[in-house]
Design goal:
Blueprint (H helix, E strand, L loop, with lengths): L16 H4 L2 H20 L3 H14 L3 E2 L11 E6 L3 E6 L10 E6 L4 E12 L2 E9 L12 E8 L5 E6 L19 H4 L3 H4 L6 E5 L11 H14 L9 E7 L4 E3 L5 E4 L2 H15 L8 E6 L16 H14 L4 H9 L2 E4 L3 E2 L21 E4 L3 E2 L10 H13 L4 E3 L9 E2 L3 H5 L4 E6 L1 E2 L7 E4 H15 L3
Helix pairs in contact: 2-12, 3-7, 7-12, 8-9
């Protein structure tokens, strides 16, 4: 299959991936997107994504690394990091000191977390206070249905899982907006100030307990419900990971159904496609690794973020079981000899907001997976920037495998920018370049991607993981 060369200057009749797909390939694209849709609906938090990924891996013969005493080429293993991170590998024929092929993405998304003491009553209504997580536009989160996902850890070590607001019969929660009739002062503020972080409070109850002696009767009614249904008391909120997320499923967009919109596609679109690429991979020459990390949206810190030692520990474990021993030097050689794709989304050109993009260097929906040589902001601040040689190698892999790809930047030079986990992978002295799916409405509650691009990301990651 010939490689698609996009003519950016010929905007009258630009080619897309759809133009080059056969009828059979189009069917594959739509079939693949159905699996992805199911993944998005089942995995709206990092814990849920890890659980879904582990179940899918187990079906494909992957086993928990902790239960292994020896590894041989062809073995498939995974290791979970505190229920919020995951590494998977297929052991290759080559020694690990020669390096691995790694595709790393993140599975956290912007959301609203409950505060440690969230529950209060005001105006005879009960509400939960939140602290937003990641880069959001706060006005996106008012006036929409929200679901509550996560778990509460009790003092005795037991946990209560909560996933409320997703099923048709479930109640939902919401953050009320100010009516336009009374919003004169609000409308005169900057968009960033119209809704404040402290105003993002979930409406969760309105029926009071019948006891007139109780001072905050609606609040008490909510506590009673939590106790009866989940065995949760108020102090348990202190040790809870509860997240409010949009309470809607992934949906097709457009008369032709060529686009898919959902919450959390940044970066679960890359997580799913890289996971599927590994699960469908034949035993490779070089060990193939897929890494699903937490905390990228807030700087990759913490023991489940990319700044932790989880990847090093994983490499040490598989090296010890594969070779019978390991050393700090061998681990360093392995990581330094490795090659990686930082699998993260890029911004697609939006016809409604063309002024923030350099059209010559902007990614488009439907033109394939996006290869991004550097990220960062303004003077490339925060970017690891892939070298020319490695970028050419990746380009060659895609071209040989018939993967349709494009290049892209995150907006005009002085407009803003952003980062990925690439610089943290590069810190191991490995070669790394960003490669992901173009998105409209990134960090909104309803992000849009092309089904053709999603499928090309899967093919790109699979081609890279099996490359020499």
């Amino acid at each position: 299959m010939p490689v698609l060369k996009f003519d950016r200057e010929n905007e009258k009749a630009p080619l897309t991936v759809w133009d080059r797909l056969s009828d059979q390939e189009r069917e594959q694209v739509f079939l693949f997107s159905e699996g992805y849709r199911n993944f998005l609906d089942r995995g709206k938090t990092e814990r849920e994504v890890v659980a879904v990924a582990v179940a899918a891996a187990a079906e494909k013969g992957f086993a928990d690394l902790g239960g292994k005493s020896r590894l041989v080429p062809g073995d498939k293993v995974f290791l979970v990091n505190r229920s919020r991170g995951l590494a998977l590998a297929i052991i290759g024929r080559e020694p690990l000191e020669k390096g691995v092929r790694l595709v790393g993405s993140h599975i956290d998304s912007p959301r609203l977390d409950l505060k440690p003491e969230p529950l209060y009553e005001d105006g005879q209504l009960s509400l939960l206070k939140t602290h937003y997580y990641g880069g959001i536009k706060k006005y996106h989160w008012v006036g929409i249905p929200l679901a509550l996902h996560g778990l509460v850890a009790r003092e005795d070590g037991s946990v209560a899982g909560i996933r409320l607001g997703e099923d048709p019969g479930d109640p939902v929660f919401t953050i009320t907006d100010l009516l336009p009739h009374l919003s004169k002062d609000q409308m005169e503020k900057k968009m960033s100030e119209g809704i404040t972080g402290e105003a993002l409070n979930l409406l969760v109850g309105s029926i009071p307990v019948k006891d007139p002696e109780v001072k905050l009767r609606v609040r008490q009614a909510v506590l009673n419900t939590l106790g009866e249904k989940y065995g949760i008391k108020e102090e348990d909120f202190t040790s809870a990971d509860l997240e409010a997320v949009p309470a809607w499923p992934a949906r097709d967009v457009g008369f032709d159904r060529g686009l898919l919109a959902a919450y959390g596609q940044d970066d679960r679109v890359c997580a799913y496609t890289s996971l599927r690429a590994l699960l469908d991979l034949e035993p490779p020459d070089r060990t193939a690794v897929v890494l699903l990390a937490d905390k990228e949206e807030i700087g990759s810190a913490g023991n489940t973020g990319m700044q932790s030692a989880f990847l090093e520990n994983f490499v040490a474990e598989i090296m010890a079981l594969r070779d019978g021993s390991y050393s700090d030097l061998k681990i360093r050689r392995c990581l330094s000899s490795s090659s990686a794709l930082s699998a993260d989304v890029n911004a697609a050109l939006d016809p409604n907001y063309e002024e923030v993009m350099d059209k010559l260097n902007a990614a488009r929906l439907g033109r394939g997976v996006v290869l991004t040589k550097y990220t960062g902001s303004r003077g490339k601040s925060g970017s690891s920037e892939a070298g020319a040689e490695f970028t050419a190698r990746v380009r060659g892999v895609f071209n040989r495998e018939g993967v349709y790809w494009q290049t892209g930047e995150l907006g005009k030079v002085d407009q803003g920018g952003g980062g990925t986990i690439a610089y943290l992978l590069a810190a191991y002295n490995m070669d790394v370049v960003d490669c992901g799916v173009a998105i409209l409405g990134m960090h909104s509650t309803f992000e849009v991607a092309s089904k053709a691009d999603i499928y090309m990301a899967y093919r790109a990651y699979r081609a890279f993981l099996k490359s020499i």
